[in-house]
Amino acid sequence: MPTKHTAVAADEPINTALRSAVALRELADRLEDENVEAALWAGWSWARIAEALGVTRQAVHKKHGARVRGLGLPAGRK
User: Fold this and answer.
1) Minimum mean pLDDT among 5-9, 15-19, 48-52: which range?
2) pTM (2 decimals)?
């Protein structure tokens, strides 16, 4: 019969994998935020950013619009 210690040890790879997935998702979110801001500074439209991300214009605007408005970035309409 496995002991509690054995069960915890067996779960450690799963725990590590899940923590890694969270870290990767957070990194991807930060990279997306930074690159959306860079694209807006470069004069990209929301539609062009959305196309590059593989989402709709509405989706990218909903996700990033409020945050970038607070940063004083260009409107992204060029």
Assistant:
1) 5-9
2) 0.76
Report how many domains make up the chain. Answer: 1
Burial of 48 per CB tally in 10 Å (0-12, 13-18, 19+): middle
Q: In this structure, which amino acid lies at residue 11? A: D
Please provide the distance, in angstroms rounded to a whole number, between the alpha carbons at the two ends of the chain: 67
Quote the domain boundaries for residue 65.
Answer: 4-69
- Domain-located, residue 42: yes
Does residue 77 belong to any structural domain of this protein? Answer: no
